[in-house]
């Protein structure tokens, strides 16, 4: 059997909610031993989120797949002593508290490198480890607001709209994993660990493709269902509010779209001869496309014609439909994940990082404190001491 990439790597995970657990979840997928340190009795906040099945939160399962749970009181000196012992064999520490929180317990980066000099220490926060915003409380919506994402979402004559996903948290989780992988490669070459500073705001800001345009002095804001620069590139509505995503921004695709609509003359129409002219005349472009779509009782028939002409087009599907689509199961985008919620497991996201030689493996999320006895035994605690500690904290 192929050795997993991070087999033998120990990760101490002080994360909760979404951004941090998403980051450490990837490490677990590739074989790292991820020890999730959780507060007594309640654990990660996600454990209390709805919906719940058999007392287990559906929201908790995917971000915390494949981890071990250590239930421990960090405010207790005995709890801090256990963390200190674990750090001696830890390769990566990940936390997503407000900056400075772990310092109160004696586990800041400067503290930890005295115990494990080559550790890779990743801090994920809302606004970064330093700067005037660093001590402010914040969630994903704060990052959406400050990154320009909310301002860019919706229609120009209406109030802005938040994203349908927790985008900043996922962006930060992915960024944290990428940074840790980079830092581990550096450590492999040099023997040096390092501090990693990841923020949800920074991570979402990096996704704003209009920043350079704004930097040139152009006013950019939300453009509804259409792209700020590309045309046609958006959502087009036909009869009975049926819609299609149609993306034909370059000349070749515009020619194919014109032919599919039965109007090859649009290619030479002065309103449509270039992407710039089409964007300047976006209302006319929208009108000719939607007039054509309105001739179909079932928009699937229009989609079939566009596909025959190799015009990129897509129907909008619901999240429920995604979980029922055969191609998603075939691709492994949707899987059945082992879970305490059900003997049959749960329908879950699968791995989107696909490697042929070292494929990720997703496994069960832990119950609160499930691995406390195992880990304390490894550290040399006697059965009596373990019973005393677990009873005190559970």
UniProtKB/TrEMBL annotation:
Pfam families: CoA_transf_3 (PF02515). The keyword Transmembrane helix does not apply. SUPFAM superfamilies: CoA-transferase family III (CaiB/BaiF). Gene3D superfamilies: Crotonobetainyl-coa:carnitine coa-transferase, domain 1, formyl-coa transferase, domain 3. Keywords: Transferase. GO terms for molecular function: transferase activity. InterPro entries: CoA-transferase_III_domain, CoA-Trfase_fam_III, CoA-Trfase_III_dom3_sf, CoA-Trfase_III_dom_1_sf. This is CoA transferase. It comes from Fundicoccus culcitae.
